[in-house]
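Holo model, flavin-adenine dinucleotide. Inputs:
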Amino acid sequence: MKISDILKDNKVTVSFEVFPPKQWDRIENTKAVVREMSKANPAFMSVTYGAAGTASGFTQEIANEIKKDNITPLSHLTCLTSTKDKIHEVVSELKENGIENILALRGDIPEGFVFPDKQYYKYAYQLINDIKEMGDFCIGAACYPEIHPESKNRVEDIEHLKLKVDCGAQFLTSQMFFDNEIFLNFVEMCRIKGIEVPIVAGIMPVTNVRVIKRSLELSNCSLPKKFSKIMERFGEDDKSMLQAGIIYATEQIIDLMANGINNIHIYTMNKPEVASEIMRGLSDIINE
Ligand code: FAD
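Output:
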């Protein structure tokens, strides 16, 4: 099923993100994670793509597993470090495997990276343009409520985002954020600037401060005082932080929904127990 169909009519949807393993010998463990998470019946499940694009087969394998479990898969695809030929190969494989949804991304710039020649993509909008030519895919793109770290300002950031939508992105998924006001203002700004596609809110349940620290530093996202206090108080105790992180994420989702945001994507960090606990906390809300 196309994600654009899942997101239409502004129904409440909760979807999950998983990441593939770094080593092939861990693939069965990740498949088991997917099977466990499928039981919570997410609207769709996305699977990330290695930054350097070296293990594209892992992403495909996990996307196929999601499909086997009767959940719609969304395959991420980054383009910065792969030739256009390689990307065409990956997209053809996705098509052969019946994967209909692609989150088209540029990928982060590795340290010391020099932009190569025309055989490569420089921005995600170029990838979106090409995927559109390669088949009948539903294409999504990334967005940044607190501005992408390379953007000079909000205006420039939203102009570039609009370019991705104009090129064919049919929905957007946001970077994680912990302050709902920031996300709500961002959505309003997007609407003012003529971005009309669904904007899915990316929610990260922080259940282990040590694991998440690096992502927090890189992501540009601000931490509200309430959340910093929770991390300060419970960060050293794994069990307490797990409980507090799940409750904070659940409350964040309920507040977003109360403010009219119906599409939520949970960065599960491959933890089925976290995903299912949040779904349990929302059970009547999702089915209302
Ligand atoms: P782009 O949209 O190309 O933007 C990158 C920068 O270029 C921005 O600052 C933008 O403003 C600027 N820009 C865009 N167009 C132009 C233009 N025409 N002229 C000048 N500047 C321009 N990374 C992974 O490696 N694997 C994943 O699976 C993955 N999944 C992600 C999922 C989500 C929901 C999000 C939010 C991010 C994900 N990332 C992933 C990280 C992502 O690859 C990085 O944030 C990357 O730095 C930017 O990717 P992008 O697709 O947003 O790039």
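The longest strand covers residues 13-18. The pocket of flavin-adenine dinucleotide is lined by residues 48-49, 51, 76, 78, 105-108, 123-125, 142, 148, 150-151, 157, 160, 163-164, 173, 175, 202 (CB under 6 Å).
Archived with the compound record.
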